[in-house]
Amino acid sequence: MKLISKIGLGVVILAVSAVSINAVQDIQTDEVVERKIINDYNVYALPIPEKMDFAGEEVPLHNPDIRERIDRELLVNAYWQSNGLLLFKRANKYFPLLEPLLEKYGLPDDFKYLAVAESALEYKSSPAGASGIWHFMKGTGLEYGLEINDYVDERYNLEKATMVAAEYLKKSKKRFGSWTMAAASYNAGVGGMNKQIRRQKQTDYYDLLLNSETSRYVFRIIAIKEIMSNPKKYGFNFREKDLYQTIPTYKVMVDTPVEDWAEWVKPYGINYKILKIHNPWLRDTYLKNASGKEYFVEIPENGYYQ
What we know:
Blueprint: H1 2-40, E1 53-54, E2 57-58, H2 64-78, H3 81-104, H4 111-119, H5 138-143, H6 158-176, H7 179-188, H8 190-200, H9 212-229, E3 249-254, H10 261-264, H11 272-278, E4 295-300
Antiparallel strand pairs: 1-2, 3-4
Helix pairs in contact: 2-9, 3-6, 4-9, 6-7, 7-8, 7-9
């Protein structure tokens, strides 16, 4: 009986000791975790650059309202890390295509960041129906001569859509006197900007009180430009091999109806999916082309999808 009592007492002591040790470990763990949170996770305020511009037009950073608005967009875009990395990856693929088109059609290079702000360099549609990398509404695309129907939607044709974007923006620049106002009108519309100019008797974007979307719009573009021009400054780290690459293509002219694109592409060694990746303006599996219009289809060079 005494032996059993001693054994029972020992078990109790061991159990109490285990509880005490666990309690100490829990306390230590909490302290360690707290230290790690403080030391390993930090969010920093971002210094605003001394000078910023859009298309060579200076941002009036001496104005406290302007500083607050650019600060907001820098913070929002710099700390949305997953989206930021995707933008860098896509830009490496699409900027080499966009930049010569902007030069060809007479737009400042900074407008590539407007395309980033509009679509994140994805061939997608917005909830409102704006489509393509430049996010044209259907009515605007038709007004500027783009073909938009069940078989072809040239809002998704990078060269043709860039040509129309340039035409729209150059016309706005002539109307409003600055590239900054032209960019704002891309969001609010020419009519919307004219209305606010008349109401407020101001002609500078930075002096106008605009709706929440347009009031942020140009600042978002400028913040994207700043971050994408200085990735390491804003904590983005990547290697060249991490980025998406531009795939070389050649053009094939089509001036007849196509009954089945999936069959049409077989001699070129690709499938329908790859055809659509490089020609998102093709909207169906066939093409009605009774008029004999010339279309130029992009075909990737041999070996890229093998």
